[in-house]
Amino acid sequence: MRYLTVLRLIGVFLLMAVVWQVQAWRYGEQLEHQEELHANALNQQSQALAHQLVVAQEQRLALEQQLNTSDQQHTRELSDAQRNQTALRDRLATADVRLSVLLDATDPANGCAMPTAAASGGVVHAAPRARLDPAHAQRIISITDDGDNALIALRACQAYVRAIAR
């Protein structure tokens, strides 16, 4: 009987060891399955992030190109305006062009006795004008140059902000 009890105990231990091993195999399979699912999820996340990165890079490059084009356009506008301003200053300096202002011939407070009608031998039928001193004309041109430059710079800034805000 003792022999049978020992055999039973050995059988129970063997059965427990087999059950233990089967459970370990099942648990190992479950862990492998979970690892596979986790690896797939990480792969999908990395692919999605890579796609987002490519899209962001494409958008950045498109924005850089747009800003570069806008910058070139505003630089060209500024250089054209400066060239025109320089030419106008040169023409004023050589008296090729004269700046003048309209006078109100009907205003007695202006202190100028200007005829209200054109002279009989004159061809000019426009309102009376007074020529500005060349130094004053240069200062006026300088002020308008600064204003033109400011407007061009403002348009460039506005275009930049619009491009960035998109």
UniProtKB/TrEMBL annotation:
<feature type="coiled-coil region">
    <location>
        <begin position="39"/>
        <end position="73"/>
    </location>
</feature>
<protein>
    <submittedName>
        <fullName>Lysis protein</fullName>
    </submittedName>
</protein>
<dbReference type="InterPro" id="IPR004929">
    <property type="entry name" value="I-spanin"/>
</dbReference>
<keyword id="KW-0175">Coiled coil</keyword>
<dbReference type="Pfam" id="PF03245">
    <property type="entry name" value="Phage_lysis"/>
</dbReference>
<dbReference type="GO" id="GO:0044659">
    <property type="term" value="P:viral release from host cell by cytolysis"/>
</dbReference>
